[in-house]
Design goal:
single chain, alpha+beta, Jelly Rolls, seven-stranded mixed β-sheet, 5 helices, 13 strands, 23% helix
Amino acid sequence: MPKLLSDDAVAKYQRDGYYFPLDILSDAETWELRHKLEEYETTTGGPIQGDLRHKAHLYLTWLNDLIRHPRILDAVEDVLGPNILCWSTSFFIKEASDPSFVSWHQDATYWGLSSPDVMTVWVAFTPANLLNGCMKFMPGSHRQQLEHKDTFDKNNLLSRGQEIAVKVDESKGVDAILKPGQASLHHVLLAHGSEPNKSSDRRIGFAIRYIPTYVKQAVGEKDSATLVRGTDTYNSFEHEPRPTAAATPESMALHAAIVGRQVQVLYRGTGQDHFRP
């Protein structure tokens, strides 16, 4: 019996490749997360960018708490089972009146994981709507890997500016409209994208990628993940420690090393050694 999702919700995820909205945080809890992010940004001199947007749960304690949120993990367990690793996280932030966009793509294309049993939980720190560039999902597109091409477009928020190399019928896309504190769930092969933010406020989303412990890294020589529920009898990933305080020298050094390894996987064959700004 599912812990959080209804049988219909699980069936929808399996049929369409996504499910939303899922209530996770209260208004006050969501405001607090945004406040903590923007408070941290004041210490770094501006919006969080580049490598720091990725796997920030390794150096910010409040994000490490979020990836372990019981409601999130209950939903993940309903689909992936009881033994769960958090493989990665990323901020997707579009500033006000920002030309940044996300092209139609499938997450699995460059991740190098051995199985498509991968779920992204996308948590809205702000509203995600038509004006500020919410995600669009293509129902049922998660059943096969599609060919992609790299563009490295400066306004594309994806690591390589990758996009599906065949024409996408955008009229069939579903707008993933979320309130602050809500989340969407999507399959690693689901085609999705988003438009620029035309609003007067930032659009902030935090993507958390979960895998069952039996999944392996098939491309990189070494990879790591955070065990967030259950047990790991496979030990295919190094287990990442929980930060003891925000942005300590130790956690920042560990973050730099781990993200450096992930960059080698995601940017393989390009010569890139850091995430794009």
